[in-house]
Design a protein that fits this description.
elongated, three-stranded antiparallel β-sheet, 30% helix, alpha/beta
Length: 159
Amino acid sequence: QQAYDAAIRRVLREPKGLLAQRFLDGRPVPVCSPAYQARHRLRSVEDIARATLLVTRSEPQAWPQWLRRRKLVPADGGTLVFEQLYFALQAALDALGVALAPAALVAGEIERGRLVALAEVKGAMSPMYALLSPRTSDKRGVAQTLGRWLQQTGGVARG
């Protein structure tokens, strides 16, 4: 018997032995409030290197990896560390710095103008949020139905 019927996880790729139905974009995007952007004159991706970076304990390597991929070295803008992503996002909304968050989780705040994306999200969708389920399960049909609903709600085509 399986330990679970389905789980929602942020993954880089489909785990071996599991069916993954992707439904949300988990690629990281740097965001800050319009006030922080204006006060610190953040006009290009390179300017992020001198901003205060809002870091989460659950993903301490997220910023270093993101900066390294863009060949940026952080200046002395400092960091503020938070236990959870939602605390870091609240700090970004409060104009305390730049948070690195999954694109899908901040899309609404960007659309409302409460946050500004400081870089474009490019490339293949990885990481992604996916519904994971065992390939062989007597509840596979229910998991697939849930996965289709998540895809429709999340706006990601089946894949």
